[in-house]
Amino acid sequence: MGKKTAIIHSAIEVFQEQGIEKTKISDIVKRAGIAQGTFYLYFPSKLSLMPAIAEVMVMKTIEIVKQTVDDEATYPKQFEQMVEAIFEVNKEYYEILAVIYSGLASTEHIREWESVYAPFYEWISEKLEAAKIAGAVRQSIKPDRTAKIIIGLIESTAEQVFLYAQHDESEADRQKEEVLDFMSHALHFQTVKG
């Protein structure tokens, strides 16, 4: 593991334990096993870590979603699997996500959010384009724009369950059903193999 990666992973752990405000750079570098000066070679401040932490989590989310989604399934089933995977990520990593959101919201780094999410938008956009070509969704969708809406819808709904509310599994199931019903109507899903 490189020094930059060690800093990021150490910061995630320390932020989770102590919170952003109480964490000092010295806490992060001690956990990473590096000198404090090395930290500044990569990051000008502890808050400048937020986009890097967000990127790690987005990459982890994409990895989990790609492992979960069966490319041979029908498009409605693929999107159902995507919703399930994103809910699972939010359930498992809600503490890290809370750190990211609070850290990004308190800095100018929130502007970097779109670039961090670009690979995820692209992957979903490709899925939508393939579904459009196959006649599995309405022909008027704009895959690039719709990908952003879909991610926003799924993540926001999952966050309401796991980040802002109690970890109520029955509520999570109800919210997943509602998201899928909404997407089904919005995209006009047709059952066509992926």
Please explain how this structure is put together.
The two termini are 37 Å apart. 72% of the residues lie in helices and 0% in strands. The radius of gyration is 19 Å and the shape is elongated. The chain is built from 9 helices and no strands. The protein is an all-alpha fold. It has 2 domains: 42 residues, Homeodomain-like (Arc Repressor Mutant, subunit A); 140 residues, Orthogonal Bundle (Tetracycline Repressor, domain 2). The model has no long low-confidence stretch (mean pLDDT 87).
Provide a quick synopsis of the model.
The chain has 194 residues and is mainly alpha-helical. The chain contains nine helices and no strands.
Structure keywords:
Tetracycline Repressor, domain 2, 194 residues, mainly alpha, Arc Repressor Mutant, subunit A, 0% strand
